[in-house]
Bifunctional NAD(P)H-hydrate repair enzyme
Amino acid sequence: MNRHALLTPEEMGRADAAAIAAGRSGEALMLAAGRAVAEAVRRRFSPRRTLVLAGPGNNGGDGYVLARLLEQAGWPVAMAPLAPPRPGSDAAAAAARWRGPVVPFAAAEVGRAALVVDALFGAGLSRPLSGDVAQLLRSVRAPLVAVDIPSGVDGATGGILGYAPQAALTVTFFRRKPGHLLLPGRDLCGETVLAEIGLPDTVLEAIAPRAFGNAPGLWRPPLRDSGSHKFSRGHVTIPCGAALPGAARLAAGAARRAGAGLVSLATDDAATAAILRGGEPGLMVTTEAVEHLLEDRRRDPWLLGPGLPPDDATRALLRRVTGAGRMVVADGGALTACAGDPAGLQGAAILTPHAGEFLRVFGDPGDDRLAAARKAADVTGAVILLKGSDSIIAAPDGRAAINHNAPPALATAGSGDVLAGLAAGLLGQGMGAFDAACAAAWLHGDAAQRALAGQPAGSPLLPEDLFPEIGKSLASALPSSP
Ligand SMILES: NC(=O)C1=CN([C@@H]2O[C@H](COP(=O)(O)OP(=O)(O)OC[C@H]3O[C@@H](n4cnc5c(N)ncnc54)[C@H](O)[C@@H]3O)[C@@H](O)[C@H]2O)[C@@H](O)CC1
Ligand SMILES: [K+]
């Protein structure tokens, strides 16, 4: 079953329940979970005075198992329970086996520890942390290891319920949760380790997860066989206004490097055409009217936005191209041209809004950006690529992927034009809209990482710097064995 699947806390609860119903023991799962955390801790930290903060549920139970295993390995460990586990639970059984010191749930104890384990709440967090718990977590100065997820992070959204601590290491089980990949949760997790605890993959069949971590394997880059020719790999057409020819050129360069058969920039302005013709020699520039260009059925897909102003003419162009049955990637000006009117974007294949454009078109996404992106996909019938450090790709059928390989240096002018160009280039080669959007987001992040490799920390990244890396990123995304 898909290793990229992400489980909401509710789905993870169902996975646990299904495994137990199929004969796994809850106690064995808890032992495996505690052992996985102990191993991850011992690999990264030397033995040191450790305090385990334990909540009343199974997350706390994992903490008791971990404490026992660390103590057996010779570590000085103390337990600080927030509340006793529910009698008869697996956590109560784990607590009963703890023979070491139990200390008050207090800042003085936290201050004495050289490592703090947060085993307070995991998947079962249902309301904001109380003031006392938040205050204690705020007092932690030592490195903090989170069991499953830092307490206070909402596993479904990555949002914070009241307060959540910064972890150096988070160990989660079976499958990651959206909150491990969505911000701010992802940053609070520190290094995230995914551990197998003996849950069989078959439990996922009934759950049928709908969210995924974005990576090759979730999609396949287009393969070029010897029979393919330039028209079978798409003819990406990018209309370009007079104001921003650079944006359209960046998008076109990216579409070519994604493997598009042909890429042409279309402008009705002679001066703009002259500027565009001074660009890459392989890039075609046409001054023919859009009506004529649309007569050529092979011109597909169209990228509308980079280099277009957010005005009524752009809106009309969008309607004309979608009306002609062409695949459209809508970005920049084409999105803002539909501010407050998502219906204006119906018929497009992929929309690539940043946070500001999303707000203008769809309204405030609120705390749950994943749900907001899915709703926007449902409303428009288009795949939404909501850009950010944790870009979300959502399809109208409810599938969603979270991208997590984009370095912060990618947040620079022109970067979005490259991303939109990649999406159009891949769409033209026959990838489905969801796959093309996922692949574009991943390639964009991977190419950026390659461009930055070996550079001093904090080096700037120009959108053009991605160009020489895109081919390598594509090659690395091909399955290693068929
Ligand atoms: N079989 C299983 O269920 C397994 C679960 N595992 C662990 O179990 C965890 C989930 O266990 P639970 O479902 O017991 O959930 P938690 O351990 O997160 O805690 C749930 C309990 O905390 C209470 N609670 C929720 N939010 C609170 C708040 N803000 N303030 C005070 N109390 C609050 C709830 O009412 C409930 O009693 C996972 O995160 C993981 O660490 C692992 O042991 C692997 C196997
Ligand atoms: K936790």
